[in-house]
């Protein structure tokens, strides 16, 4: 039996060497990514070009032999498919037309119309399913409703998600209707990725940590649970990874509250704490702090070993606590991988 290591970890197996991949593993720290990106034109042109999107997905697999490939796309393609304007200004991050009124919500396209825009993404998945080495797992993804809504409401990235919190306070029914719409669209989007060949799906809730009190359960955990349940109904046995980033102590109980097979951890919790409080409930993914890939040295090796050691007695997928940054060094990525695989 040569079942893929990522799928074994997701099924609850503690492996002698944890499988490894990196958030944002296709990205600007790689010269081959920068070259393909140049060829494609804009970042969005790259996302919607199935051959080139598949190419950049494969680049880190060829270079590093990661155990998983993550579809190259972006969480903001869904709001675009729902009818918002989207652009990525160089060095400025995303800009979207905003949704702040009932009239804006009424103007969105019906959820089942998203496939008109997103079909190139499904084509990328199909290409990858046929092109990946047989031991490599293909991960599809989407943004979680809260995180995607923060960009739709503000029209851009925000340090504290202030505009989304303000709309939630001023007009909770509208805020909840936006999240509902995104929840439905996300189910349809991820389901198509699975039909095209994604073997695992991951839900990125990058701003979950700014939800306070009961809002965390209502707007981070509950939508993740709805999406997970609907996907598992449609695709029995599909493994789901949830990433409520910044959850802190609220990572405890997140497996049960979301129904996800794996909870991805950021580096705001120590691996020792998470091994005791989160991993008993299922697979965990994480959580080396990504700045170590910039600074390297003895700390990179020590902290990599520390993460491996802390999670060694249960199911674990090695990863970073957040995406690799453009200033990271390729040599440091090699050192991290060698350290994980040497044991
Ligand atoms: O991980 C991967 O390699 C797969 C592809 C992927 C991208 N974005 C490509 C990308 C994934 C999984 C994402 C998720 C994503 N996108 C998130 C959630 C994860 C997280 O980082 O918290 C968020 C919040 C976004 C939205 C987004 N996309 C922002 C705010 C930005 C601009 C900031 C930046 O890093 O430039 C992006 C751009 C983006 N998405 C890039 C890549 C490779 C850089 C674009 C470029 O090539 O210029």
TrEMBL record:
Keyword line: Cytoplasm, Decarboxylase, Lyase, Porphyrin biosynthesis
Keyword Hydrolase in record: no
Site entry: Transition state stabilizer: 74
GO cellular component, one term: cytosol
Xref: InterPro entries: UROD/MetE-like_sf (IPR038071), Uroporphyrinogen_deCO2ase_HemE (IPR006361), Uroporphyrinogen_deCOase (IPR000257)
Subcellular location: Cytoplasm
GO-annotated biological processes: protoporphyrinogen IX biosynthetic process from glutamate
Reactions performed catalytically: uroporphyrinogen III + 4 H(+) = coproporphyrinogen III + 4 CO2
Domain of life: Bacteria
Chain's role: Catalyzes the decarboxylation of four acetate groups of uroporphyrinogen-III to yield coproporphyrinogen-III.
Assembly information from the UniProt record: Homodimer.
Family under the similarity heading: Belongs to the uroporphyrinogen decarboxylase family.
Record-given protein name: Uroporphyrinogen decarboxylase
Gene: hemE
């Amino acid at each position: 039996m040569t079942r893929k290591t990522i799928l074994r970890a997701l099924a609850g197996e503690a492996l002698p060497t944890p499988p490894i991949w990196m958030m944002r593993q296709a990205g600007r720290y790689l010269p081959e990514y920068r070259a393909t990106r140049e060829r494609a034109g804009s970042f969005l042109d790259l996302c919607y070009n199935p051959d080139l999107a598949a190419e950049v997905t494969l680049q880190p697999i060829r270079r590093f032999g990661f155990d998983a490939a993550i579809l190259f796309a972006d969480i903001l393609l869904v709001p675009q498919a729902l009818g918002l304007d989207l652009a990525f200004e160089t060095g400025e991050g995303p800009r979207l037309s905003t949704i702040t009124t009932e009239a804006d919500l009424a103007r969105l396209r019906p959820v089942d119309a998203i496939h008109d825009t997103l079909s190139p993404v499904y084509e990328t998945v199909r290409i990858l399913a046929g092109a990946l080495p047989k031991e490599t797992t293909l991960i599809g993804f989407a943004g979680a409703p809260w995180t995607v809504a923060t960009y739709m409401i503000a029209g851009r990235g925000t340090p504290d998600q202030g505009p989304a919190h303000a709309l939630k306070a001023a007009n909770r029914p509208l805020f909840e209707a936006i999240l509902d719409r995104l929840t439905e669209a996300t189910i349809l989007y991820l389901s198509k990725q699975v039909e095209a060949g994604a073997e695992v799906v991951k839900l990125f809730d990058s701003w979950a940590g700014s939800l306070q009190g009961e809002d965390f359960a209502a707007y981070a955990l509950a939508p993740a649970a709805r999406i997970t349940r609907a996907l598992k109904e449609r695709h029995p046995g599909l493994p789901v990874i949830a990433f409520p980033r910044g959850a802190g102590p609220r990572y405890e109980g997140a497996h049960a509250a979301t129904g996800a097979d794996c909870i991805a951890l950021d580096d705001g919790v120590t691996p020792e704490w998470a091994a005791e409080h989160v991993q008993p409930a299922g697979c965990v993914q994480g959580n080396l702090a990504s700045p170590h890939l910039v600074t390297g040295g003895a700390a990179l090796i020590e902290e990599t070993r520390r993460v491996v050691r802390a999670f060694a007695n249960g199911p674990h997928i090695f990863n970073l606590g957040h995406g690799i940054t453009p200033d990271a060094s390729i040599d440091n990525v090699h050192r991290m991988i060698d350290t994980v695989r040497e044991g």
